[in-house]
Amino acid sequence: MCLFIYTNILQLTVVIATVFAEMVENEVFKYYSNGEWKVSSSGKCVPVINPTTRKTQYKVQACNQEEVDNVIESARVAQKSWAKTPLWKRAELLHKVAAILKQHTKPIADCLVKEIAKPAKDAHTEVVRSGDLVSYCAEEGIRVLGKGNYLVSDSFPGNERTKYCLTSKIPLGVVLAIPPFNYPVNLAVSKIAPALIAGNSLVLKPPTQGAVAALHMMHCFHLAGFPKGLISCVTGKGSEIGDFLTMHPGINCISFTGGDTGIAISKKAGMVPLQMELGGKDACIILEDSDLDLAASNIVKGGFSYSGQRCTAVKVVLVIESIADTLVKKVNEKIEKLTVGPPEDNCDITPVVTECSANFIESLVMDAKQKGAKFCQEYRREGNLIWPLLLDCVRSDMRIAWEEPFGPVLPVIRIGSVEEAIRHCNASNFGLQGCIFTKDINKAILISDAMEMGTVQINSAPARGPDHFPFQGLKDSGIGSQGITNSINMMTKVKSTVINLPAPSYTMG
Ligand code: G3H
């Protein structure tokens, strides 16, 4: 029995290694266009730097504008027949992808560990979560897209009751998906699956850090057998193909997750629907009556998981002065238990994605130091690895009170009243998520109502998931709303067909 299982595992490993081999040539990963893995005619490649070793881990093709033109054209052609493919058939293919993705969890998760230093267990979860998302999307698509509306005319002036309107949802055309480095697989499929189920075609431009995990994920779509050209993936430098992609007349919708680049894209993109998830300065308000152990656990989990590199990370703690000492002590006790080191060892705190990010985080820490913040731990950095740091007694004149470090550094601002906390939250140019800790649910709901945030969590840290929940940011945190159902709706347009009956020659009723 054991031998049988071992042989099967061995065979599966060999199969996986063989199928992935078609994606690489001369140690450079190919890009995916019109159903084939290709080498760019640019003859150039882009290195993917391992954040832990700071050495080149992989190389991907530096696609040029002509190759972008080609994928968009094949996406345009393939979309026409895909839109006529029965909904159940589209759903069936997505279910197949979900299963293949889960079978390939290990190699994809390994790439996440190497490319973006995601702790091994979180990398594994990202792939499994992505498979679940795709399956849910296939099911939801059948429910949402299988329905239409029927409207009967009403007595607006000049209208007889002779008009009947049938509405249905139609695809937009070619969707451009640009996911961020921190979830190159999950935030890619959260765009790809809704686009495809709705009858769109899709072009993916993954981030360079995370591109190889994204290409492996794309390979799962390739194995599932989607029509040629329906889905493609171009890699390369944003400076060479970024604007060309986002301003391309063949793109009919853009779904982007990332930072400030999203604001620039929204200014340059043409008249196409945009879905943007940008930054956040997610505030955590702790009231006097809260369960401080629960609050401390959530602050540490919310603030430091994946080293704070999540748009939904807790990015500022606003605590009522009278309980601040107790809360800070509890948080510090938990920070001491966090493990720091390489992602392969499943450490809680791993190197941040680039040296440039580490330098930016350090600049915020030094600014806070110069202006008198209280350091609960000693500031420590080796390469891209930054040890977790709680900064107490942060004031509004410090940059860290407003900017998002996207790293394992968390500011605590001591406040005199709930009103002061709300004022601080609402003065931010971000409005992604926030959270409140209190045992008084009535108060929590009133505070939630006053906070200018896309989502407010009561007694838990901010989070995007579960993936079918609506997810949106106000102000500079985004445009539109995500979550499986919202994304399907966003990637469609309502189409009406109006039936006009001849005026009756006799009086009805
Ligand atoms: O970084 C942005 C992500 O949307 C955060 O997702 O809350 O599941 O970590 P998460």
TrEMBL record:
Keyword Protein transport: no
Domain Aldehyde dehydrogenase: 39-496
UniProt keyword Cytoplasm present: yes
Reaction(s) catalysed by this chain's protein: D-glyceraldehyde 3-phosphate + NADP(+) + H2O = (2R)-3-phosphoglycerate + NADPH + 2 H(+)
First and last residue of the signal peptide: 1-21
Gene Ontology molecular function: glyceraldehyde-3-phosphate dehydrogenase (NADP+) (non-phosphorylating) activity
Matching InterPro entries: Ald_DH/histidinol_DH, Ald_DH_C, Ald_DH_CS_CYS, Ald_DH_CS_GLU, Ald_DH_N, Aldehyde_DH_dom, ALDH-related_metabolic_enz
Keywords noted in UniProt: Cytoplasm, NADP, Oxidoreductase, Signal
EC number(s) reported in the record: 1.2.1.9
GO cellular component: cytoplasm
Active site location: 277
Compartment(s) where it occurs, according to its Swiss-Prot or TrEMBL record: Cytoplasm
PANTHER family the UniProt entry points to: ALDEHYDE DEHYDROGENASE, NADP-DEPENDENT GLYCERALDEHYDE-3-PHOSPHATE DEHYDROGENASE
Similarity field: Belongs to the aldehyde dehydrogenase family.
Protein name: NADP-dependent glyceraldehyde-3-phosphate dehydrogenase
Organism per entry: Penstemon smallii
